[in-house]
């Protein structure tokens, strides 16, 4: 049976089109990595420079997380209406404005609002990037294409720390305004490239019934990829239309029977497990980014330690990249299981050995959370059909962030009691992540995306 996944594999293939798309989407992920690390360092700097209270510092972190939740919700609903490319370009442009506006902020209230807005941009572009890539990549390499965004994200974090050597004195002082202005350059470049070169996904046109445009795009992409396959013939075009109409009819039937979408009977188990995993993963991730600058400052560690962390994290992320599409030794679910086990062990050891295990512990946690997050993002995109993909992915990420919004108000008081007490709690929570990972019901490693129940039997 003709399907778009088969057309993508046999007629379109992989080449310049996918490389260009990954490069542009990857650039915004690079900028997101820069922004995420900048957020954690900025909290430590402003606490010292503006003499902020513990509650004000926690609010600063929570405002960003609140914005991320709103951004996830925007991604969940808006991108299916106005398209992936349009949404991406709009929020890349907003990011440029916010970067430079932040560098001129003079008050705590201004920073709170700007952190909220930046969170909205971050929360929209991050899941959107994974949706974009999963829709343009062939099944065989879909995991690697999507995971390459993670490599760019980690590279952005290392880049920010490298710049800290030139702009900041330490974790609590320096020219943070000049630092963020300099970081506006890659954001501006990404916005310009998205306007000129980024193309809407063919799947989106098919889903909207814009078949003529979809067929034109297929031929154009074939030329870009230097694919010498024959253009689609009338039989293939009719078959692709029939395939999409069938999907649309099944979607309508499903929506008539189940009004809850991602919470319908068919998707309920996957949705609840994804939500719980993302809640726990976000809490773990925030413990690193909120506490790391304070822990390093407490040990009088320089920026070189954080830079080493990110560089080694990049190397191990590349190793995961090599195995993400291997259904035997890697695969999506296996990586989640490995990461969960590593988190349980490392958090416990960090609580026991504390400062003597700080660098190694942070490194292992960062490797595990990076593998966990990036793989969960891919699983989110692969677990839902096209009409629920943006909504399912965006809502899952939003729910994960919603529950973590108050986490700064939990982590900082725990930190005041014992700087390493949060890691004991995280070790206990990690056992739940292991259970959820082992029982996850779907792994679409190297499988087609748009597959309904009767077609799954054929697989």
Automatic annotation (TrEMBL):
One of its GO terms (molecular function) is transmembrane transporter activity. The keyword Transport applies. It holds the Pfam family MFS_1. The chain crosses the membrane at residues 21-45, 57-79, 86-105, 111-133, 145-168, 180-198, 274-296, 302-323, 335-353, 359-381, 393-414, 420-440. It is found in: Membrane. PROSITE patterns: MFS. Residues 21-445 form the Major facilitator superfamily (MFS) profile domain. This is Major facilitator superfamily (MFS) profile domain-containing protein. It comes from Paramecium primaurelia.
